[in-house]
TrEMBL record:
Annotated GO MF terms: ATP binding; glutamate 5-kinase activity; glutamate-5-semialdehyde dehydrogenase activity
Keyword annotations from UniProtKB, A to Z: Amino-acid biosynthesis, ATP-binding, Kinase, Mitochondrion, Multifunctional enzyme, NADP, Nucleotide-binding, Oxidoreductase, Proline biosynthesis, Transferase
EC number per UniProt: 2.7.2.11, 1.2.1.41
Assembly information from the UniProt record: Can form homodimers/multimers.
PROSITE patterns: GLUTAMATE_5_KINASE (PS00902), PROA (PS01223)
Gene Ontology CC annotations of this record: mitochondrial matrix
Residue ranges of coiled coil: none
Catalytic reaction annotation: L-glutamate 5-semialdehyde + phosphate + NADP(+) = L-glutamyl 5-phosphate + NADPH + H(+); L-glutamate + ATP = L-glutamyl 5-phosphate + ADP
Database matches in HAMAP family: ProA, ProB
The name this protein goes by in its record: Delta-1-pyrroline-5-carboxylate synthase
Annotated compartments: Mitochondrion matrix
Protein family: In the N-terminal section; belongs to the glutamate 5-kinase family. In the C-terminal section; belongs to the gamma-glutamyl phosphate reductase family.
Domain Aspartate/glutamate/uridylate kinase: residue ranges: 73-329
Amino acid sequence: MLCRAALLPSLRSTGRFWQQSDVAGSHPCLLAPNLVLRNKCARGWSNIPFITVPLSRTHGKSFAHRSELKHAKRIVVKLGSAVVTRGDECGLALGRLASIVEQVSMLQNQGREMMIVTSGAVAFGKQRLRHEILLSQSVRQALHSGQNQLKDMAIPVLEARACAAAGQSGLMALYEAMFTQYSICAAQILVTNLDFHDEQKRRNLNGTLHELLRMNIVPIINTNDAVVPPPEPNSDLQGVISVKDNDSLAARLAVEMKTDLLIILSDVEGLFDSPPGSDDAKLIDIFYPGDQQSVTFGTKSRVGMGGMEAKVKAALWALQGGTSVVIANGTHPKISGHVITDIVEGKKVGTFFSEVKPAGPTVEQQAEMARTGGRSLAALQPEQRAEIIYHLADLLTDQREEILQANKKDLEEAESKGRLALPLLKRLSLSTSKLNSLAIGLRQIAASSQDSVGRVLRKTRIAKDLELEQVTVPIGVLLVIFESRPDCLPQVSALAIASGNGLLLKGGKEASHSNQILHHLTQEALSIHGVKDAVQLVNTREEVEDLCRLDKLIDLIIPRGSSQLVRDIQKAAKGIPVMGHSEGICHVYVDLEASVEKVTRIVRDSKCEYPAACNALETLLIHRDLLRTPVFDQIIDMLRVEQVKIHAGPKFASYLTFSPSEVKSLRTEYGDLECCIEVVDSVQDAIEHIHKYGSSHTDVIITENEKTAEMFLQHLDSACVFWNASTRFSDGYRFGLGAEVGISTSRIHARGPVGIEGLLTTKWLLRGENHIVSDFSEQGSMKYLHENLPLPQRNTN
């Protein structure tokens, strides 16, 4: 049986509802499983007995950032009229309510204290009264006419207070039934304006709420619409489902109850800088006090008395009282099922109200700056873009000491906190030789970028004086997310500059000092031609998942980091293409006709030169007939000398009496001095194994048989396939691309190490002389020629 308390504060004379002895012997749903009674105090919120719960408090600071919302303990969820009611304003949106109750229950069961401020009684009552009126009229009409056929029956305008009186019990019964499914009790509290104006009634209300929260009960607060002033004449129920101060009610309760978070759910995504639906309307991610002047408020929702302006006023009042506020959409079918939990988890949903303005621009503003700067960058002459990259290369060597000093800070902090494993520490570390290699790579990019943007790929004469060109253009705005690799920043920046793309960079916090100085040098180089804003470093507390939702601002995401990072981004990015690979499971196949000398050199280099790299050997495939031969013995001896831990594949283990630890999975990327050895019967068997367990990254065959090698090269479906060469050659710098933004295993657009070419797309240019399509009809005067024209000569200097 569900506990229900219909509590009118005006009828209560004390600040207590249940005695402690009553609670101990009452229904089990009244007592929280982890309830600890301390001197009859409100749990965790006051040291004053319930009978004298304080009416005011010294308000604390609201949360400054979304990421802090996960720490919210006490939460008020305000359900606007448009959220609770159906589109016809007659009855409740049951599916939506069930989803909201599920989310509130989940948070309540996490140990949070949830309260709901709800509308809906009038709508529910309207539905019931309409049914009763129709039934009554049909009976009377049937008796009067003596026949079953009924005339059209007009339903009179229903008075809102009567609807509220008829719907209040049904609304609460519905909430009770829904919360019962999660073993949670709900208690109804009806209030009016007088309950806030009268001091004693405020005490009663405050004390009741504290007691309910202490007993793990969810208060359902609703305005007593049965006694509120009548609606405006001839307005039917428009604007009366929710009383005029419903938003104010939620804000007032939130502050008086010392709530950490107030979630206001409406039928719009949040606060916009102009009326939603207008062409230039943009959702405001974070709203600060004093920003009202920059906002134009539109009309209110289809139901309810309060529009967005009323919500903003209530939100700012609550914020001033120390309660964080988020206004979000509770009606959208794609997000309503998780909107509340997403907000509490700190995800970028709706508009977050904050008193703390960041020192720099928001990530949305940075994306806009990158797009504008990228377009200016693309408009420069190729020689000017190359000059920027050459200057950046010079800065990397000229400012070497400052860069290494910043990198030293990152290394010391990472080591002191024990945050990174050894392979990641190696990636984090910069050195003089690394910086010199970076500078050389950047100069290669500059030299090869002279005609990358605007190059004509195809030229066709469609008809007389009608010529078509396909030319290369930048993709737009790139988001590159990288971990523990500060050397990635100048590489990717140079490639973006060469290809005329705007760039957003999100580096790991473990490399913050290194990234800051490298980004500063990048912007210094860009400044020589006035395009400083083209490359932006995201320094705010944006979660990667939130960045992946900026589909209107970002055109391509390129992750650089662990396989888990890449998978998370591929999962989170909805509407934005992701270029990259989730794993680097690279294979080396040692054929029966392999050279002993080549085998040991190539295997050693592939596995041991840099085991943390994505192009390092992870699985060594050996032809079955090589077992117990000098070739096999030398491979094993070399791996032991290099201290490589060996894991045996299932077939390899079956040949051994005492084998190394058997591999748990043949799809493992070790990223360290470890590898798997497996046995195959032939080159075809090796190809099939790689297709089944590989990641289409880089795979190698070692053999002296050219026919076998060509079969491997032609039939293996990986981004990079090598013959008698180390897997470590799979790299943009080693390919002569200067650098790479990553290695793509995708089959669309770019594959393998991605340099400048992979960051370009195309557009079509058609030049005509008053041409129209109807001229090419059967009766027209013109005919299609479709002649291929010679292309302009490329600049190869």
